[in-house]
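ok so i was messing around last nite and threw this chain in just to see what happens. nothing serious, just curious
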Amino acid sequence: MPTTALGAFLTARRARLTPGDVGLVSSGARRVAGLRREEVAVLAGVSVDYYTRLEQGRERNPSSSVLAAVARALDLGPDAHDHLFRLAGLSPGSAPTPARPQVGQSLRELLDAWPDTPAVVIDRRLDLLAGNALADAFYADFTEADNLVRMTFLDPAGTTFFADWRRAAEACVANLRLALGHDPHDRRARELVEEMGAASAEFRRLWGRHDVQGKTHEAKTFRHGAVGELTLSYHAFDVRDAPGQQLIVYRAEPHSRSAEALRLLGTLAVSRWLR
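result:
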């Protein structure tokens, strides 16, 4: 059994691959799913003993060249590749996660300068740290718009609001695991993982897959209680003076049904503010 986070990650990712995925020919019955350790070792160009020690946590100082070879052998994407290096303590240094993240005043003013599109600031554990008025209206279906993981898994509105709930859930978990790769000692992120693991069986299942993924730019569809369905793309920007924070700006296709829905949502937000 793996005794380190690095070992657990390698074991989980190895189990998800078949010989055909990596160009190997399978022969004979296989007792367990996924690649065998010796197959990964061959692909990575290391000894079976060395790779076994790496998975079991008995090899704690792998070189960057070995890790790069293992990442190629396991067909890791960019986020998972970087996560592997962080777990081994070889990632570029990153600042520790602040105990109470704060959003600068200039960034808050920038959010308010975009009245026609939802814009929020999040941290690595997917806390919603700040948002403009349209973002408040966008998330109005939720009991409390405080953390995207809780909102997705625990709030009853989540399964309706996210049109493809399973995809949203998988992305949340993969983002959260990436956060712990940046700072394995992030107490608040670890507490969130424990909280969600105790509250949601689906979270526990997805957490066990060891998927790692940052924010993407693909369009997502939402179902809002007041304005109906919206399909929005979005862009994520790193906040350079606050490591770990990201500015997320949503956008609807011009002249689309979703653009009309956003305009209506903006009108409702202003009406609510004037009351």
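not much to say yet. The longest strand covers residues 228-238.
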